[in-house]
């Protein structure tokens, strides 16, 4: 189980307990991280990421240990980074290789903090917490992203809201009827019964909509006329992932909530990496097993999905602003919110367990 956040992952010495540590978070898409530094604040810590000559990824605190200038605006030299202020050269391990006055002996006690990284599912992951616990086996199992016979692509949005609000949004798809009326939303979503359950450390919300008209997004994917059976199965995975098994199949094709490889099936893959308590990095995409050999369709599909998620971004940023403007009010939870509520409870329990573990030692 991922652990609660501990120093140095705080703000001004204050421990933040809205996200987990001793866990892997997505730092960027594989294509985002290149030879020139990428600056990104992860769980309250400014970091920079770049690839060495062998293409492995370096993650380092984005602050020169001399005068704290961001290293991300520095100069790459070999596998190292030279601060653009006074010229201190740091190796990929964060240790000083050359002093600002080059005749001075190198003080190897001067170093910048580094972080463990790993690449999987076309994403660069960074371990937040105790480096000794950074086991790649603990990376969330986003299996559709790497499964043979499927294709996967996606993109990134910076969203000005608490990452848990996005989890709430993804675990309650009744909002599609109103927020996404022109693409994936339809009234039947509001009418279909939902089931919420906990499976180990996952939370699952499922909805089955038989014999309905397909919304525009899915009608285009299916390429067939007639009524369809539609499904939505949302799964929250610690520390901050949501996978949504979605699709439509022609009525009579034999699709069920348990077995639905007929028709057009995809799995929306979402990972929310906290930046601050009121902002996060949103990595979104879809893995699908239809039209897998059509790169043009993949690009168009991603563009359409990006438009859908841009609508969510507008809503959630407005919600965060309203929360800030109404400090005397609290969020309410109805039955449709059960998936998000249980996901938050899962996070809170993990934090509490870690606190107990630390106290015991």
From TrEMBL:
One Gene Ontology term of the molecular function aspect: metal ion binding
**InterPro entries hit by this protein:** Cholesterol_7-desaturase (IPR050584), Rieske_2Fe-2S (IPR017941), Rieske_2Fe-2S_sf (IPR036922), VanA_C_cat (IPR044043)
| A Pfam family annotated for this UniProt entry | VanA_C
Going by the UniProt record, its keywords in alphabetical order are: 2Fe-2S, Dioxygenase, Iron, Iron-sulfur, Metal-binding, Oxidoreductase
- Please state every residue range assigned to the domain named Rieske: 24-126
Q: What is this protein called?
A: Aromatic ring-hydroxylating dioxygenase subunit alpha
Q: Please give the organism.
A: Novosphingobium piscinae
Traced from the root, the source organism's taxonomic lineage reads:
Bacteria, Pseudomonadati, Pseudomonadota, Alphaproteobacteria, Sphingomonadales
């Amino acid at each position: 189980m991922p652990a609660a956040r501990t120093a140095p992952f705080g703000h001004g010495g204050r421990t933040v307990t809205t996200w987990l540590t001793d866990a892997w978070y997505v730092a960027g898409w594989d294509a985002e991280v290149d030879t020139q530094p990428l600056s990104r604040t992860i769980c309250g810590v400014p970091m920079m990421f770049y690839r060495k000559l062998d293409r492995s990824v370096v993650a380092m605190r984005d602050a020169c240990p001399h005068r704290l200038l961001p290293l991300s605006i520095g100069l790459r030299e070999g596998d190292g980074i030279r601060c653009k202020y006074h010229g201190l050269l740091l190796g990929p391990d964060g240790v000083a290789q050359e002093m600002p006055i080059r005749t001075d002996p190198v003080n190897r006690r001067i170093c910048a903090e580094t972080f463990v990284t790993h690449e999987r599912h076309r994403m660069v992951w960074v371990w937040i917490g105790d480096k000794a616990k950074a086991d790649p086996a603990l990376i969330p199992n986003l299996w559709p992203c790497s499964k043979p016979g499927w294709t996967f692509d996606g993109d990134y949005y910076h969203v000005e809201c608490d990452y848990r609000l996005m989890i709430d949004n993804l675990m309650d798809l009744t909002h599609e009827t109103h927020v996404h009326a022109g693409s994936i939303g339809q009234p039947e979503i509001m009418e279909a019964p939902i089931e919420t359950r906990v499976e180990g450390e996952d939370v699952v919300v499922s909805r089955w909509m038989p014999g309905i008209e397909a919304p525009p997004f899915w009608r285009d994917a299916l390429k067939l006329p007639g009524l369809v059976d539609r499904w939505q199965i949302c799964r929250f995975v610690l520390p901050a992932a949501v996978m949504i098994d979605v699709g439509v199949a022609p009525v009579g094709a034999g699709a069920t909530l348990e077995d639905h490889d007929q028709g057009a099936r995809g799995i929306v893959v979402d990972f929310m990496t906290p930046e601050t308590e009121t902002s996060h990095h949103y990595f979104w995409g879809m893995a699908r097993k239809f039209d897998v050999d059509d790169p043009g369709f993949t690009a168009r599909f991603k563009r359409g999905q990006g438009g859908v998620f841009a609508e969510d971004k507008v809503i959630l940023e407005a919600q965060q602003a309203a929360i800030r403007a109404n400090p005397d009010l609290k969020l309410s939870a109805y039955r449709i919110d059960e998936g998000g509520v249980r996901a938050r409870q899962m996070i809170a329990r993990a934090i509490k367990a870690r606190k107990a573990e630390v106290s015991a030692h």
